[in-house]
Amino acid sequence: MKKLPAMFGVLLAFAAALSSCCASGAPNPHFEKILSTDAPKSNDHALTGRYQGSTILLQTRKAFDELTLPNGPAGDADYSNKKFSRAVVVEGTITRTVYVTPIGRSSLEVFRNFTDSLVARGYSIAWQCAAETCGPAFKTLKYNWSDKRTQVQGEGYEIDRNRFVAAVFDGAKDIRYALMQKGSGATAAYVGLYSAVNSGGTMGDITDSLSDRVTLLAEVHEPRAMQQNIVTLDSDVIGRELKANGMARFYGIFFDSDKAIVKPESKPQLDEMAKYLKSANLKVYIVGHTDNQGTLEYNMSLSLRRAQAVVEALKSAGVADARLLGRGVGPLAPLAANDAEAGRAKNRRVEMVLQN
Fold first, then answer.
1. Residue pLDDT, tens place only, 244-267
2. Nearest-angstrom CA–CA distance, 287 and 159
3. pLDDT digit string, tens, across residues 271-305
4. In the Cβ-directed half-sphere of 161, how many Cα atoms lie within 13 Å?
5. Taking the CB of residue 303, how many other CB atoms lie within 10 A of it?
6. CATH of region 235-354
7. Domain limits, the chain
């Protein structure tokens, strides 16, 4: 037999070793390192702490944001009608953390440690569920591999840590959830706890690395008023912006998350827009913009509905219908990258654009 070249022999040996590794189900050492190291710039929230031996895989903090917390089962299995039967919508400082435990712990053990700790801190269980009592659509609605709005997307993560963002509850089994509450009314504080053990899933080596580990999503809400950092453009500034740039940009028009109803705190900006339009003989487009969270089709529809809501508000303030035309461009004209909340906030806006 002809002697194989030395390099070819090395390649064959490497391939054999790789095959042996994969066949034996040996863990990927790089993924193991990620799972054993806290995410950059993350730390435990003072209210929750962490389960011993676990690490922070993902974390986001918002100084002021809105969060929907389930307060009842997701009872409809029909995809088009999936929703929680009850939910609490809260505003304030929001911290969302995904913990991952060592192999071999149970979802119940990890979950119970967190709930017991919060009860000791004065919280009570407003609602909880396990397995089928959470409802058939709970897993899909609470944390969905294809819905970025449900995911915890930290900032500054390496590529492989970002691969875990969609995977952490993909193979969720033994699901447990609790809504914890402290206080009542406007000063009430909430914590949502979602725990599951990973078994199966559809994301290959990422799924395999999570196998038999518990992941827990802790969502901490702290009631806090929003800082008023938005400057309302007065009618003179609007006129100057239109003359100089052909458009004026507004961040003082507010909507609830995923809604197209103009909030009352938008009135100062709407009044200035109407004041200018009633004094000027021109036609404008009112253009809605979104960030890229969610599908393109959804954001295109949402931006159009928001633009039309602003048109209706201006008409109610006395601006002639013939001078207004609402349009939505969704995430197609960003002003900043959408990989961080600061950029996404800049992209969510309404613009007034001169018609020809």
1. 999 999 999 999 888 999 999 999
2. 34
3. 999 999 999 989 999 999 999 988 999 999 999 99
4. 22
5. 26
6. 3.30.1330.60
7. 27-222, 235-354
